[in-house]
Amino acid sequence: MPSRPLLSLLVLLLAACAGGESPADDSGDGGGADAADAATTGTLSMSFSIVPDVAAIMDEAPAGTFYGALYIEAHVTPTGVTDDAVALETFEVDLDLDPQGSPTAALFESQPLDAGLIYVLGFLDSDDSIVDDVNPDRGDPVTVPGFDDRYEVVAGASSAAEIRFDLLLP
Ligand SMILES: [Ca+2]
């Protein structure tokens, strides 16, 4: 029978392994969420739109690659994210937005997320300026915390989330 110190070491090793791996479930190879997952996590099904007044002042069409990241509410401030913020997921979606403001169809489904409020922060590289560093430059449509770009993840559900570009990066 293992001694107590050995058990402690095993626990530490397991914790280290868990920390180094993705939080993917251990129920198999994608055969669907098990009951426990369904009870605590959900997804966001994202559509996208731009405020018509914002589209009207753009130099180019509101189209291009959207670079997005998901954050829990505790990691978001009115002006950005906290120093210790960790994105739950980063993703890219090609968009071709209606300048009149109609939302797209659902174009992106998040990974399973713990139920709660999630911010979707990012920008549309409408002038196709990204080469190496993925950062918005002047005139890129952006989503910002101050405009309430947060959405509720409901356990066991895929929740519709309309991601809206409220302004251009000054
Ligand atoms: Ca840009």
Features:
170 residues; alpha+beta; 4-stranded mixed sheet; disordered N terminus; binds calcium ion
| Succession of helices and strands | HHEHEEEEEEEEEEE
> What are the low-pLDDT stretches, counting only 5+ consecutive residues below 50?
1-25
Mean pLDDT: 83
By DSSP, the count of extended strands is: 12
Continuous helix count = 3
What is the CATH H-level superfamily?
Carboxypeptidase-like, regulatory domain
What gross morphology would you assign?
globular
What fraction, in percent, of the residue positions are helical? 10-25%
| Name of the level-1 CATH class | Mainly Beta
Largest sheet: 6 strands, antiparallel
SSE diagram, text form:
Layout: H1 4-20, H2 35-40, E1 41-50, H3 52-56, E2 63-72, E3 76-77, E4 80-81, E5 89-96, E6 108-109, E7 113-114, E8 116-125, E9 141-143, E10 150-153, E11 158-165, E12 167-168
Parallel strand pairs: 1-11
Antiparallel strand pairs: 1-6, 1-7, 2-5, 2-8, 3-4, 8-9, 8-10, 9-12
Calcium ion binds at residues 125, 127, 129, 136-137, 140.
